[in-house]
Amino acid sequence: MICINKQELRELIIQQLKKDQRLLLQAASTAHAAATHAENVPDSKYETLSVEASYIAQGQANRAQEISLAIDRLRSLELKDFTPDSSIRLGALVLLEDGESQQRLIFLGPAAGGMKLNCAGTEIMLITPESPLGRELLGKKCGDDFALRLAGALREYEILALC
Length: 163
Prior knowledge:
The longest helix is centred in the N-terminal third of the chain and has 31 residues, at 6-36. Helix 1 (6-36) runs antiparallel to helix 2 (49-76). A hairpin with a 4-residue loop joins strand 1 and strand 2 (103-108). By secondary structure, this protein is of the alpha+beta class. It starts with 5 loop residues before the first helix and ends with a strand. It folds into two domains: 6-76; 93-162, Roll (Chitinase A, domain 3). It has helices spanning 6-36, 49-76, 132-137, and strands at 93-98, 103-108, 116-119, 122-127, 145-150, 153-162. The chain has a six-stranded mixed sheet.
C-alpha cells in the first residue's frame, strides 16, 4: 500500500469542508433574503413562503456551524503513524479488501464521514467511529477478518494494510 501523507489528506478534507461551508452560507444568505423580502410578507396565515425560507436559512446556517466544528476536530486530530501491529483508532489509514477482491482505502477520522477524496491519485473514503464500518474497525489489526451487514447483505472484509 502506498502510504498517503496524512497531513496532505487532512488539508484536502478541510479544503473540501470549507468549500461546502461557503456554499451553505451563500445559500443561507439567499434564503434569509427571501424570508425577509417585502414581497414575501404574508397577507394571510396560509402564505408561508417567508416562514419556510427562514427554516431553510436556519438549517443551512446550522449545517455550516457543524462544518466549523468538524474542521476544528480535524485540525486537532493527532496524526500518528501506524504499524501492522498497531490497533486501528482515529487517524488510521486502512486498506480493506472485500470478499470479491475489491480494495478500498479508508481514513478513520473524527468528523465528515462519507466524504470521498482523491489524494495522490487514490480514492480515499473518510469514515467516523460512529459508522458501522468505523465501529467494526476500531481495535482491529492488520490481517484481521470481519463481516459486516450492510444494506441487508453480509459482507466480509480483510484488513490488508495500515499506516
